[in-house]
Protein 1
Amino acid sequence: MADAQKSWFQIIRWKLVVSVIVGAILWVVSGQLGFPVIFQWMFVAYALLGFLVFVVLDAPPLQAMTGWKAGVAVVVFYLVCSAVYVAAGNLLPQFTSQTERDGIARKTVKFRHEKEATESLLARTRELSAKADELLAKLNELRAAGASLEGVEPVDVANLPSVSPSIPIKDLTPEQLIERGKLVYQDHECYNCHKIGGKGGKKRGPQLDNIGNLVSQAQLKDKIFNPTAWKAEGFEKRTKDEMPDKFAEVMSEEELHALVVYLLTLKNPSVDTPKPIFPPGYAVK
Amino acid sequence: MRAATVRGAGQAVRSVPPSVVWGAAVLVVALLCLAKSSVAQTIEVLNPSEFPYLGNRMAVWALAQLHILFAAFVLGAPIFVVIAEWISYRQGDAKYDRLAKEVTKVTVILYSMTALTGGFFVLMLVTLYPQLTGWLFNHFFPIFGIFYPLLFIAETIVLYMYWYTWDTLQGEKKGRHLALGVLLNLIGVVTLFAIDAPTAFMNTPVRTAEGMEMSLRAFIESEATFWDKVNNFSWMPLNIHRLVGNVVFGGFITGLIAAYMYMLAKTDEERAYYDWMGFVGNLIGIGTLLLLPLAGYVYAAEFYDYDASIGPYMMADQLSMFFEMQGAMIGLIFLASAYYIWLSLKRIEIPAYSSAVSQKLVAGILSAIIPGLGQLYNGQWGKGIGFLVGQLALVGGVGYLLGLHSEEGWGLLVLLLLLPIGLLIASSADAMHRGKSEAPGGTIVTLPLRLLASLLLAIERFSLKRRELLVKGAFIVLLLGNAIWMTPHAFVGAVSELTDENYDRLSLPSDWDFLSLMPAKLTAVGLMVLMILLSFVLYTRAIRRGRIQWGQINFTSQFALIFLAFSAIWTMGLMGIVRSSLRKYFHIYDVLPDLSPESFTPTLGDSSTMITTLAIVFFLIVSLSIWLALGMARAKGKG
């Protein structure tokens, strides 16, 4: 209880001195070890947090409150906590929403086309159904009048409008196609498992810097849509963290083509990209 | 509307709040109608409405989050309420019975809010996302159409029976009341497991078997059985995580109730009681919180195992800063809890240390480490070996029944089970050893145990003498642990923001990259858990040796309890949006894409504002409920 008799100055002074020294040491040492400035500030912030914690630990007891005083104190406390949490959430780095939205717009092209196709089919079905009803009604009228079916025109099913839209990648220049492939690589988060140019996932998947020298376009396409088709050296016995087998469903043929064209441009023999191991009798389907 | 009434034998007529009746009716009717397949098929072709100002996604998020907050308390609180009632029954300590009754009183009011928010949530889903809801309801018809409404009705009946028979089922009839409480919990757990199935399915829908040439959606719609859909990858880990989380939540809300009532208390007796209640709430909250990182790890590991792209997406890419925030929140919760222990410790006066040390502490600690070891130490070979074999069989059996899908899941399940069972057996070892002055043995087998015992006793002697110094040391380790936990690979919102130009300015140096990897994070959280355990051990030892004056605690402690409750709720909201965002641009991962304009991840800043708003709304309602249930009753009693 001796702390209760200490003044705030007495409680703070040595803690402040120690925290400043610790903060300074952390700043200098982390700088020497090559940490970027933002991490140096993070270490200093920890020293500051330590200072606050130890001040609170030795702070004098709070006077007991009751009634409306306690109520006001609780409300103010909630507001302070809320403000601090909202501020912290906003101060931490944010991703750019538009980047994600653009990526989603690209990734969902396949699904949008499927949806449009389904809707178009549904609309056409409704239209044809209405026509059929109309014709049936006419037929019934004619039948009732004792007429024959001669002269009734059949519906030209073969000439219905097409419902399978596709992306005109044929219009892209080779450079544009490679750029498109890079976007596909980004959109489908391949970087989380694979490394290119020293950037990307940590050992989950092979580095791809030299993949262009090791496989053909067809083999690479087969691998992406059917990950168990063949494996990379060093990854052949892996049963965990295997490559997801969903890309055939979430990636369009156009995206696959662009991605493979981009990957095949990666021909850096100085990087040890693992060699492919094809199963006996392997042939691209 | 007149309130429905229930009359208990020998009691005044009590009212069931009309909101309960309305809420339950709305939820059950909504579910029954919508789960009927013809209706569900009809809504598949309806166009969605647009929620004004907030947008559809935010509106559904708000209602879902509020519903989960209320439901978490309503499902979590009865677990320790029954345990408290049982302790009171066994030990004859009326304090525990009062605690159980007061928490149940608040639970009954919040139950109506659970039903109301649940009902509105379902209606909102149907109106704003008719196609998705129809699809989901069709595939989980047995749950939405049969089990869930029936379970909800059963839970409502049993909860009110449990509450309204509290005073009548006393004395010899207390066992029946306890049985009702156990039944309530069983129904609650089954309800939780049932509704977790579609929730988990949205994240990790059942996969096609290897070699099956069929799209995932076609497989789910034509081949997958109902059980396949229920028993998906993340279902059981989500069940475990939510079950533990609900108890944590209930514990912290109990602490909140205690803090409010402590502030309202007029007499020393009331203050002493609510001081004690706050301590118990914190003990339950933080005690079970220690298990949450393990349960969370199992849950996350199943995600990694399900789809290798999800793990990096949450820990190192789009959601990495959400986890940065989570690290800060958990660190603050641990610090606040340790601070509460610190304040509690400061009011205990301990007499000079006696050299006559008890062996029961040693047996207890050994049992906590490995169940059965304490019995071996005590020379109870049969019991010790029995415990070890039984433990192994239990863990194996439960693991087999749960059917966890990964090796980590298995290992962590073992740890998860070892800790609480170990602690349980520790207390029985403690009781068994009462009256014994020396440990038997002397053989070569017990020698290491005796050496370990001597070390533990030396630490105990030192810790009681210098307990404040040790707790301060624990704070330093807590800060260090939190610093490691919060060190990211790079200070960016998503990997796509990392360019050749800013890479070196924002990323860890490659030699120090291990700080951002899982082993470092697990070590950090392990350290933090250990420090909290150490603080609790110091505290309980101090109470046993010294004298504690309930009601004399530093008033700041009440704000620590409020802070713990608020932060726990905030963290729950944060992890809620993380779980939901793991579906990326899908309603149901890889199966049903979200093609609406609202298909994007809210930024951490936007999420923080939303979570805070929801936490405040929740607190307003809970504060009002506590005031109605306990504050008003207290004022009325005085009058």
Note: Chain B touches chain A through 81 residues (CB under 8 Å).
Protein 2
Amino acid sequence: MSINHPTAPFVGAPEKDPNISLIGTLAMLVEAPGDFDLVQQGRIWALAEVFSSWPNVQEAVIGVTNVMLAFEQPPEDIGALSASIIELWHRLPGRDANGKLIEIPVVYGGEYGFDLPAVAARAGLSGREVVRIHSEGEYTVCAVASSPGFGYLHGLDPRIFMPRKSVPSLNMRAGSVTIGGMQTGVAALSSPNGWNAIGWAAVPMFDPRSDQPSLMAPGDRVKFRIDRIEL
Amino acid sequence: MIEILTSHALNTIQDLGRIGARRFGVSTSGAMDPVALAAGNALLGNDSTAASIEVQTFPFRLRFGADIAFALTGVDCNAVLAGCAVPPWWCMRAKAGDILALGFPRHGARAYLTFEGGIDLPRVLGSRSTHIRAGFGGLDGRALREGDIVPISHTRREAAARFDFGAEPPEVAIAGARASEDGVFRVRVLRAGEYDLFSDAMQATFWSTTWKISFQSDRGGYRLAGAKLTLPAPVEMRSHGVVAGVVQVPPAGEPIIQMSDANTAGGYPKIAAVIQADLWRLGQAPPGSLIVFSEVDYREAVAAMTPVNDYIAGLRATADLFRAL
């Protein structure tokens, strides 16, 4: 149930429009066309920044190549609003991943990295190699979502992709360094979690009493450093 | 202050919700029945942002540590203050030492206790709502328990203000708000993003099924049982923002309606979204309740909020007059 018609030709532009749909009367989802990549994600960041300054927008909530607008009041003219969003999408330059660099020391494996052997087995690698590949990557925070301070990190080496579990681990500890599909992240809360834990980081990811409660913000870059390996 | 004497699991301090922190991954929390909360604050002349105690497990008892005016709204739970019955949707003044006891409700799910001046706990990220999963907000970020002391603000605007009056409950005052005679709630929804991906037969099933709110339902979401909605091919959704009321369909086919404590992000296909004017009614539907979905368009969904807003505004104006009499 899309408001616009993404398949209709956009005169003079070879590029498809974003898909725009409502979630009730107080939220609107704007999804970038095409496959996931950091260029589209950067355009979403730029879009979200502009949206945040629009009247009647409570906040712009960034997802993975999409952004949800939460409204104060139901917008009066959905059609006109969608048209402005589409126009903005085609005109606005994307933002680079030029946020701060966050370095996170990790204790890989051991008590809290209990899925490291499974990740290694699936990859056909040793645990040590998985750790090397994970810690050598440079990651980009696409979005902070799902639970407080949880950053969806892009940039995982495909050799260590690992599907989410169908049955979540019941009480994964806050700080667990995890892999879920093609993404990696650091669990901000102790809670049930379907991602695969390969290590643990002591860096606090979330402080509700701070003006900037989340350590990670969209566009930040993250590097994991080996603190210790427990195999 | 007040002292909690009896509280079983999951009774928490909630206001209208934590607005503006979704972008940090923080769900809004907030009262499941915001109309009952708003009515309580209106009766007392409180700011609409004042927090309440949301009671969803009964019985519940507290003792007043001072003379404090309070309002009891939401579900009718046979409340008694110092031996005298407290009518539902009522405000009155308790004396220091009085015990207020809420019994078991017959219909509905949640009662709201609001206090003149409001609950005096710090706002965290702009709200006093308890975020249980992350452990902040409310009282120490957790559910209330026996022996807890909840501070109440001392700012009394009108020392001589008169209390002891009530409101017509919204399910009586607002046309169509009550469950039908067979006990089935009609819940109005708008189609959502992936509605068109479901086959005609699946769409028809969605509208025609009488869904049961399962017992694996809580403030995070309501799981529905009654039919399975499957897609011709699995759909890979990228993680995106969601709001309370969204009806998502996981691969197993049984829909989930996200509620106040839902995650900020979701990735399941969205078939529909409950309109704002019906979310508070859903907040009063306990597990086991039966619901049917009926479709409205955007204009109808917006218009449906007018009687709700009018109800609260009217109640506030009338209560202001009563207190000044």
Note: Chain A has a mean pLDDT of 92.
Protein 3
Amino acid sequence: MIGFDELLVRLRGLERRELTRWVENRWVLPERHAESWVFHEVDVARVELIVEIRRDFAIDDEAMGLVLSLLDQVYDLRRQMRRLCDAVATQPPKVREAIRHALPHKVNDG
Amino acid sequence: MAKTPYEVIGVKPDASPDDIRKAYRKLAKELHPDLNPGKPEAEARFKTVTAAYDLLSDADKRARYDRGEIDESGAERPRYSYRPHAEGAQGWKYGPQGEVNAEDLEDILSMFGGGMGGARRGRGPRGEPFAMPGGDRLYVLTVDFVEATAGAKKRLSLSPDSWLDVTIPSGIEEGQVLRLKGKGDPGIGGGVDGDALIEVHVASHPYFRRDGDNILVELPVSLAEAVLGGRVPVPTVTGPVSMTIPKGSDSGAQLRLRGKGIHRRGHAEGDQIVTLKVVIGDVNDAELAAFLETWAQTHPSDPRRGMTTP
């Protein structure tokens, strides 16, 4: 976990007011601690993601909100899917086999 | 933190190639090993400066450095990926606001039992209710040193209108994980709710340190206090207390404040251990110097007597 200023140093070229705005927009959710912000690994990775999306795809602030919201929904679905797969994995072999057979092989089959 | 090549050369990050060349030549003249024979520190700096210039004078390398693709030594920086974080234990944090996973997941599960009377709730392959425990959620919480020693109640915000109240037990240690039963993802179809796992980090303190259940603190004392003794205020985690410094205390002497350390349930009470550090204060005090000169003549002593030379 690192502080606001350390993060600015690590991400050369990112301006203080930009990072502040991202936090205010709730694009990044650092932990509030003793009048400053603490960024955990997931938050740092997210800031790096925003930097990269903005630079490589020329996404502006307005579109960024939409992009992040869509990304978050995809990751949420993936998390849910993972839970489901974990649950299937704990079933007896017979049940797993039955599920595998019940799954359509291609989208067209269904 | 390693210096950026711009800092090494002493130019701004938007300096022109010309400015960079000029600044480099100036430094190179100053530091060149042939002009500074027998000065290893100049040679070391010269190497750093040359390496920085190699990077900045190559437009392609400079651009890659500015984009964060390579580090100051020119080595590739590992490409980070957000995915493992998003799908890791902390990824829920950026899930849709106010999400309730249970309903979405029940929708998916209902697809499994879709042919069986269009059951709204999850059904197993033979139509029996599909019960599934909720997942655990990992949260991270930072507490300050005093909160960690004395214990505290903290409120962890999950979203603008939801939170978890967490009781930090006294004496919690860095990295310890608290488990809040049933505060994780809700269970499905009658399955038990998951737990909230709270990983606690303890922020460091400007002068308190911890050693087991004891608190360590280094206390500056004046020369007069060390020689003559006296009562001085000492900070403790529960507020300042007054402590007697015995006459003739050396720098490094340790005094124990019983019961002023960490109190953990089921453990003996910790103490605060105060290490004295004699501070001369004004080192240019002429009166003190004059006194010591006369005093030293009549009081020869060798504090290093016990040290044998190899």
Note: Chain A has two domains: 1-58, 60-110.
Protein 4
Amino acid sequence: MLDLTRESSLLNPVTGYIKRKGFCVHDTEMPFYHRSVDIYGYSKRNNKTIAIELKLHKWKQAFKQALIYQLCADESYIAMPQKYTSRVNLDLLSEHGIGLISVSEVGRCRKLIGARQSLVLRIDYKNNNIEFLQRSKNG
Amino acid sequence: MDNTPQIIIRMGSHAEKEYILKLKNKAFDGIIIGANIVEATAGATASLVGKKLNMPYYIDPMTYVFGCDLDGIRTERKKKGVKKGETEISYKRSYESLANKFGTFFSGILESRTPVAPDNFPFSSIKSICQNVIDYQLNRIREEFIKDDDYKEYASSINNPACVFSPYFYIPYDYNDSLSLFLKLSETSANINPRVPVHSVLCADPGLLNNKSFIDEVVNKIPKTKIDGVWLWFSNFDEYEADEDSLRNFKDLVKRLSQNNLQIYNRHGGYFSLILNKIGMSGISHSIGYGEKKDVNQIKGPPNAPVVYYYLPDIYKRYGVDAIERCLPDLGIKTPEEFHESICGCIICKGVIKNNPSAFSDFGEMHYAKPTSKRPSQTPAAAKRCRYHFLMNRIMEKDFVSKNNLDSIKERLRQSKYKWNGFDKIIQFKHIDNWLVSLS
């Protein structure tokens, strides 16, 4: 059973989940301006990047951050404990192309809404992040 | 009488003088320097105020510090006369020096480690305490010139400060004795009748803004002290976060005090306080790039360098560069001209965004300051861009407020709200609603 009172407890299940989907993931938070993206991944096969904001329950704050991460990732997600996802305005997320991943108490992840390709992505930000990710993977 | 709002820039360190010197002729009305800064850098301050700047200056005596938790002005420093590396916790030299200059009462406060309070204040010595604090403000800069053989002949030509402040201390929510002390200090200072106007700083718990008895007492009693002006400082009062009632009470306080021929300033104010010029606020003070609110308690330990955010002129508030950048495509901004039209056309923004709006990211440029840095931080150049952009906008805001009536100012607030309405998930601007309601 996961301790879902701490945001950091979402990290391993969600990281594992997107790794299984073929993404290479940065070990620590990825800096973006003065913020840090909780999980940033890159799939070489699809040339897709993904940003995931982990939140226990303050989904509106996560939504704001996810919107901003559309600047630097092809797809932007919020990941939350399953028991709080019912509070989320799913229509709002869908309208803005933000995805939602729920995390169960045993750490199982499920995509509730798929993210759409970001229309505001800046290629230079994406490329910088991929480079940063690959550099850190190579030590 | 000129009703243009005054903007007094608060200089937090000499690193900021570059901004003041560059913009001094643009539209600022003076600088205010904390006496602790004067003590820490007496020569440089005297040179700046006496020679380089030709503008009104104010020295804030910072006496409130001696009434707060004194640990806030203690720091770890090298021990004198012992081996290298040994340190001790002691008072910051600037405050020690200041206390000595203010006289035995203040130096005794540091020695006894007991902050000033109404029940330990020596009322029998109140006149000499006020006199010392006022003399300090009148003479400190001149003394620095007199000390220097090359410059002493210029000492007599140094201007007086624009006003002197009476000693002041924090007034807690349980205010009776502290307010009495404030009034007594104000009255005594006014009676000294120095050759410049006497102002005081109403430094108080922000909850008192909603305390009708306190406000009534302040409005009734301050004019009787015969001081010429009051600088309001409700600790950590934040125009952007304050609710409608607090903002309205703040507005009413300004209005009522100013009707008594008092000059009213907000010691840490932003655009809302600037608008209050229309109902009696003489001016505002803030730092370079931040400082529109301040907690009376000193930050313990070394201060962290804050990120200097981008000031969004439409909304009169700072936001992360990333948040604003996220809005640009949805605002339909694709060219520099559209950026300058819709976001900001100040000289700084025109310089940064010449060919492509994507250059906006330069305002948030980050780097790893040292090879050992674990996290990136804003580059000094980016921080400088943000500060200059903010100051240029503040100058334009001053101009706008001075040339328009309150209805036009409110109408512009409404237009801003309308324009940004679809972006409230990224750019929060509840303060605009609160301002509009409180100004009605």
Note: Chain B has a mean pLDDT of 93.
